[in-house]
Amino acid sequence: MRNIMLFIDDVAGAEALAKKALKIACQCKANLQLCNVAANMAHKKELVGHNGDDDEFLETDKFGLKADELGQQLQAIYYPEGTFIPAVEYCEISNFNPVIIKEMVVKHNIWLIIMDEKQLRHIKNQDTGNYALKEISSLNCPVLIMPVKFEVSNFNKIAYVTDLRYCDFGVIRFLKVFNAALFVTHVSAPGLPDMDERYAQEILAEEVSLKTNYLKMFLRNIKNSINIKAPINKVLDSLEIKMFAIVNKKHRTFERLFDSFPKKTQVYHKLPTLIFPYLNWFNQSSFYS
Hints:
Layout: E1 2-8, H1 15-28, E2 30-37, E3 43-48, E4 56-61, H2 69-75, E5 88-93, H3 98-107, E6 112-116, H4 119-122, H5 132-136, E7 143-146, E8 157-162, H6 169-176, E9 181-187, H7 197-212, E10 217-222, H8 229-238, E11 243-247, H9 253-257, E12 273-276
Parallel strand pairs: 1-2, 1-6, 2-5, 6-7, 8-9, 8-11, 9-10, 11-12
Antiparallel strand pairs: 3-4, 7-12
């Protein structure tokens, strides 16, 4: 069974994000694990029901909301008949520590991690002070960064930005779960020539599509891609893409799209971004079988 983990560092303000994650879980037929990053919350422990026996503690945040109450609210949501209903569970970690998270990915058989874009700025590793975006590079699971203002309905159009010559079949098989139109957007790796359109179409149809057993794939071949931002913007905007995927640390695609000081906000800054670990990640082999 697929399991999605959602990180929460503000229970009182996490309802909207949790509902987005729940929609994604319904689409992927996955269960949802709410993971509270307790060190990043202003919370306290209150003594309740003390009757002379062992003290019973109930954890609340500064607004009095139970830390696991959000999961109960999600379980109470109405689902139309025939809709997959995810199980919602709750866990907690003391801080955003990549070592701990790696262990939890394995322990809970996590298929996907979801984070709010605000957490890239606010969550820090308590040991090193590094921002979460840097820590994502060391995680052993695909991570979906969810923009605050993006409203999830259905990921029916996904763009996978890669050099088609080095297309990861595991990524394609992962994205198949969304049953979306998948636009494989070719950008040549630094130092490599552009691909001829006919040759690129042949590779997509005869290699990638057949070997991954997925026919809902379409090619977008970007050429003269020294600066890939403008053509990527055009593809995502014109096709009304709902999510785009990249592999971290591969051909510097992430760095070429997200620099530290962009001159202007790009289209892809407003879209959910699915970041795959380079090379191995937990359960990756299952997507190559």
